[in-house]
Specification:
Blueprint (H helix, E strand, L loop, with lengths): L6 E5 L2 H19 L7 E5 L2 H9 L3 H17 L4 E3 L9 H4 L10 H11 L4 E5 L2 H4 L3 H7 L4 E3 L3 H13 L8 H16 L4 E4 L17 E3 H15 L3
Parallel strand pairs: 1-2, 1-3, 4-5, 4-6, 6-7
Helix pairs in contact: 1-10, 2-3, 5-7, 5-10
Length: 234
């Protein structure tokens, strides 16, 4: 039996955190043998607590919520942390210096994958908070990869779909169509891939129905956590 490190998941929204958790468990068997996966502990504050901070532009408040989860996960035995939520990574600069455990950064994982696939210019999809931030442009730009953000109108509608539908597990065909139209517009602007920069978007958009190849932040983070968990014990 291959030993693996204990993964701590700092959750934010239920659907994204659940998909990440399931992916680690499902893919674990490919590395650890039948039914195998690393030990995993997850802690989540109420999504309402995060949204209150986001609406108030209170990144210190977001960081405190994340750090509270981190401390609880450390006490539970976690050896490193992941957060399957792109938006709250904006607080990571406030979190990492005070964190009791190391983190995998979701945007770094996605940017590394974009480099491996030799993408040059990618579209960004996510909440209004995420796509107007520098979370992805900073990590992509450091690797020489360009980006295209949604227009203001697209940001509003995508944010509505995420916050009013996807986080509640509501998947409407017309919303899938809207994502496809935005991705097609990004393709027309020269993008060769699209970042699914909200951990719920992979529930409705994938390589099967996207006009561009996808960089699935949720599953890429899960795979990175699995690899780290195993490598830590090799």
């Amino acid at each position: 039996m291959i030993l693996s490190a204990h993964i701590g998941i700092v959750g934010c929204s239920a659907e994204g955190a659940s998909l990440c958790y399931r992916t680690i468990c499902e893919k674990g068997a490919q590395v650890l043998g039948p039914h195998g996966h690393p030990e995993i502990t997850m802690h989540t504050h109420s999504l309402a607590a995060y949204v209150e901070c986001l609406d108030g532009n209170d990144w210190e408040g977001v960081a405190e919520l994340m750090l509270d989860s981190a401390r609880k996960l450390e006490r539970a035995g976690a050896e490193f942390l992941i957060c399957p939520d792109n938006t709250i990574h904006q607080a990571m600069g406030l979190v990492e210096p005070r964190s009791p455990l190391p983190w995998l950064h979701i945007a770094e994982v996605v940017a590394d994958e974009a480099v491996d696939r030799v993408y040059q210019r990618v579209g960004l999809l996510g909440t209004k908070w995420l796509v107007q931030s520098e979370v992805y442009p900073e990590k992509l730009g450091a690797r020489g990869i360009g980006h295209v953000r949604p227009t203001d109108e697209e940001r509003r509608e995508i944010d509505r779909i995420i916050m009013d539908e996807l986080v509640y597990g509501v998947f409407r065909p017309e919303s899938v169509t809207y994502f496809q139209l935005v991705i097609r517009r990004m393709k027309d602007e020269g993008c060769d891939a699209v970042v699914l920069g909200c951990t719920e978007i992979p529930l409705v958009i994938s390589n099967r129905n996207s006009p561009l190849p996808v960089l699935d932040s949720t599953r890429l983070l899960a795979w990175a956590a699995l690899r780290r968990a195993v490598a830590a014990q090799v």
